[in-house]
């Protein structure tokens, strides 16, 4: 029997309704302007509020449509933010912008496959000692991420058709088509014939009855309202992040970090909603949902972002350098290797969570101090 929902304020009086709408107000007055410290702080607060509101509305929509469809909602929404930010910054950026897509996508892969996975495993195992998940679905997701990352981010470093870590036109088209096909096949696998591979399981590898997890799903009207406010939140996040992009670049330069660290900050920002949702799911002993979010977001970040960026590169004023450096390739190989060892047993403890988190910390440290 489903849990009864606690009394709640009317939809239009909740902070999740007000936050994204308020965030849109300063956009016309701050867009393209040089901001002082006070306005930078105000925009930052509104930006965080919009991100948190996006989490709440995405979870409401996900609850209505159910798993594993719900995990796709936030993954696709976050990819929209990522693509918009990358294209905007590449258009307005200089020579350094040629690697922005690579830096952001690779940072997203490292954050999802190590940060979200590690934090979820750690949060779940701290509360439940050992966490269980479906090997078939999780292994398929990890294999898809590894294939996409290799084709789109590793191979450009070794191809000979163009100078530098860059695809030729035909190679870029092939990588874009490959990305779309692999991501599309995964979504079909996750949502149709093998849907049960991506649903939570218990210690006996039997599907868990998820009807006990939540209150009754929201009404259709509330779900559509949440979907609309999710879109408003995403617009606010993209707009405010663009306003904050110049202060972020100036802050990175002031700290003495390489310009590529801007990609790390963008990835952290756009993945905040999924990180919070994944940790919340893990604390409810639903680590499979957390892994769906992590690996699904990683796939969407590559499989959807690269094709769009490839198309946009026709008009972009800078070349598109996608190939990873040697240090990044080593970090990717370590991530895949540890990920396989984590996934194969179908259960994990705090140790696996800590290992993934330390790989993320090493990535962030080396991104700031290459």
The average pLDDT is 82
Structural class: mainly alpha
Q: Can you count the helices?
A: 14
Instruction: Please write the CATH class name.
Output: Mainly Alpha
Tertiary shape: globular
Helix content: over 70%
Largest sheet: 2 strands, antiparallel
Strand arrangement, largest sheet?
1-2
Alpha-carbon distance between the two ends: 54 Å
- How many beta-strand elements? 2
Instruction: Give the percentage of residues in beta strands.
Output: under 5%
InterPro entries: Alkaline_pH_Ca-Antiporter, NaCa_Exmemb
Membrane topology: Multi-pass membrane protein
Subcellular location: Membrane
Protein name: Ca2+:H+ antiporter
Write up what this structure looks like.
The chain is mostly helical. The protein has a single domain, classed as A middle domain of Talin 1. It has a two-stranded antiparallel sheet. The N and C termini lie far apart (54 Å). The N terminus is likely disordered.
């Amino acid at each position: 029997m489903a849990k009864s929902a606690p009394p709640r304020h009317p939809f239009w009086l909740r902070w999740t309704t007000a936050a994204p709408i308020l965030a849109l107000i300063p956009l016309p007055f701050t867009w393209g302007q040089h901001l002082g410290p006070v306005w930078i702080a105000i925009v930052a607060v509104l930006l965080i509020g919009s991100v948190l509101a996006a989490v709440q509305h995405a979870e409401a929509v996900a609850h209505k449509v159910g798993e594993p469809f719900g995990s796709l909602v936030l993954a696709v929404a976050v990819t929209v933010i990522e693509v918009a930010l990358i294209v905007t910054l590449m258009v307005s950026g200089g020579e350094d912008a040629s690697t922005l897509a690579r830096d952001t996508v690779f940072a997203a892969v490292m954050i999802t496959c190590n940060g979200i996975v590690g934090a979820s495993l750690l949060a779940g195992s701290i509360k439940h000692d050992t966490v269980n998940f479906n090997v078939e679905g999780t292994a398929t997701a990890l294999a898809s991420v590894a294939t996409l990352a290799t084709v789109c981010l590793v191979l450009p470093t070794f191809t000979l058709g163009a100078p530098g870590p860059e695809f030729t036109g035909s190679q870029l088209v092939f990588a874009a088509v490959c990305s779309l096909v692999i991501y599309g096949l995964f979504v079909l696998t996750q949502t149709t014939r093998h849907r049960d591979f991506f649903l939570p399981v218990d210690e006996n590898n039997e599907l868990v009855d998820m009807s006990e997890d939540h209150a009754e799903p929201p009404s259709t009207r509330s779900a559509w309202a949440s979907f609309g406010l999710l879109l408003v939140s995403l617009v606010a996040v993209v707009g405010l992040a663009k306003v904050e992009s110049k202060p972020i670049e100036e802050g990175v330069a002031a700290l003495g970090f390489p310009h590529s660290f801007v990609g790390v900050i963008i990835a952290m920002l756009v993945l905040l909603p999924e990180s919070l949702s994944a940790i919340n799911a893990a604390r409810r002993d639903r680590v499979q949902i957390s892994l769906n979010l992590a690996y699904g977001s990683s796939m969407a970040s590559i499989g959807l972002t690269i094709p769009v960026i490839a198309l946009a590169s026709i008009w972009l004023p800078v070349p598109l350098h996608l190939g990873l450096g040697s240090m990044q390739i080593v970090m990717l190989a370590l991530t895949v290797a540890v990920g396989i060892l984590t996934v194969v047993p179908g259960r994990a403890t705090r140790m696996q969570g800590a290992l993934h988190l330390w790989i993320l910390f090493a990535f962030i440290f080396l991104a700031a101090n290459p």
